[in-house]
Amino acid sequence: MAGPNRGDGQRFKTSLVQGVAGVAGLRERKKAQTRKRLADAAFTLFRERGFENVTVAEISDAAEVAVSTLFAYFPCKEALVFDAEDEYDRALTAAVRDRDTGVSILDALEAHLAPVAQPAPGGPSGEDFVELVKSTPALLDYAGRVRHRWEASLAATLAQEAGVPEGDLLATALARFILDAIFLVTYGDHSPADLASVFQRLRYGWADFGTAAARKPDTAE
Fold first, then answer.
1. Which residues neighbour 153 within 8 Å (Cβ) at sequence distance 6 or greater?
2. What does the pLDDT look like over 144-195, one tens digit per residue?
3. Dihedral (C-alpha) 12, 14, 19, 20: value to the nearest 10 degrees?
4. Which of 17, 180, 204, 221 has the most CB atoms in a 10 Å sphere around its CB?
């Protein structure tokens, strides 16, 4: 009887690798489902009763997990609201890195950031999210800390794409300026049109800012 040949060994190895990958994939899917269940339960309770009036124990009960499991996924109660912060970070930097040939960095960022309050698939609407954060000082403060992390990632990507050293002042300042503007539009009293004006200034400069030439024409009869 012939023994196993190299082809049999390779097929077994491939099958084993695929089996391990399948188990790992299933595990990651389950983790993602648990994470989403926690975030959704927390957001529902926060909207119904207010952020400060909900405990992590109540969130865990609603999601049918232990409190220790909640903290394995989220370091603090505020993070439950910003459960997509890592995905936002990756999408922000990808908008710059993966932009089409001929598209400027500013154009790519404006196209990515302009819809500041779009509904989140399978989750609360952007408007619901913004309303909760704006009405909760602890969440607004957390949003500022998250923004600083995004700023560091964006600055590093801008420097790389521009071919300048990491920590370059222009790349760092541009990242800060853009994300500060987004923060003001999202959580302040500014409009998407104001954001468009900011991007126009970034493109063409501020030399005429405050002059008569820069003022909007009076359309009154």
1. 89, 92, 93
2. 999 999 999 999 999 999 999 999 999 999 999 999 999 999 999 888 899 9
3. 110
4. 180
Q: Which amino acid is at 130?
A: V
- d(Cα 158, Cα 153) in Å, to the nearest integer? 9
What's the CA gap between 6 and 197, in Å, rounded? 66
d(CA 171, CA 159): 5
How far is the CA of 123 from the CAs of 19, 38, 155, 194, 195, in angstroms? Answer: 32, 12, 29, 27, 25
pLDDT of residue 213: 67
Residue located via tokens 């109540």: 58
Nearest CA to 28 out of 73, 66, 93 is that of 73
CA-to-CA separations, 61 to 72, 81, 115, 141, in angstroms, rounded: 15, 17, 35, 27
pLDDT tens column, 94-107: 999 999 999 999 99
